[in-house]
Amino acid sequence: QVPLVESGGGLVQAGGSLRLSCAASGLTSSFSWYTMGWFRQAPGKEREFVASIGWDTGTTYYATSGKGRFTISRDNTKNTAYLQMNSLKPDDTAVYYCAADKYGTGETYGGRYEYWGQGTQVTVSS
Question: pLDDT-derived band of residue 75, with 50, 70 and 90 as boundaries?
C-alpha cells in the first residue's frame, strides 16, 4: 500500500493555478502526528524543498521560490495535505512529491521525512 498518493498535477499555462492533493492512507500513526512537506524535482536537478506544514501548530514554511505564490494546508479529518500554486512559472515545472515526517519540525531536508508519495507531474508552459 502506497502511504501517500499525490494528485492534481497537469499542464497549465504560465500565470495559471493548480491545487495538488496528498492523500495519506498507509501511515503507521495518525495523520495528525505528521508534519507534511512538499518537494519537487525538475529534470536534471536535485530534489528541492517547496513547503511544509507542522503537525501540531500548523506552522508553515516555504522555499523562497514559492513565497507569496504557494500555500500549503492540511485537513486532518480527510488525512490530506494540499499545495495551492498560483501565478505559476515555467521554472515551476517538476515532479512534485509529498512527504510525511512524524513529529517533524518543518525540516527542509528531505532525508528527515519517512514516507513519500510517487509524485505528480506539473508542467507550466510559457
Answer: very high
For residues 108 and 49, give the distance between their C-alpha atoms in angstroms, rounded to a whole number.
5
Which position has the higher pLDDT, 122 or 111?
122
- Of 115, 99, 79, the residue nearest 1 (C-alpha): 115
First to last CA, the chain: 37
43-50, Cβ contacts within 8 angstroms, sequence gap of 24 or more: 45/94, 47/97, 47/110, 49/108, 49/109, 49/110, 50/83, 50/96
pLDDT tens-digit readout, 77-93: 999 999 999 999 999 99
Q: Work out the number of other CB atoms within 10 angstroms of the CB of residue 98.
A: 31
Residue 73, CA distances (Å) to 14, 90, 107 in order: 23, 23, 16
Grid coordinates belonging to 26? 498507509
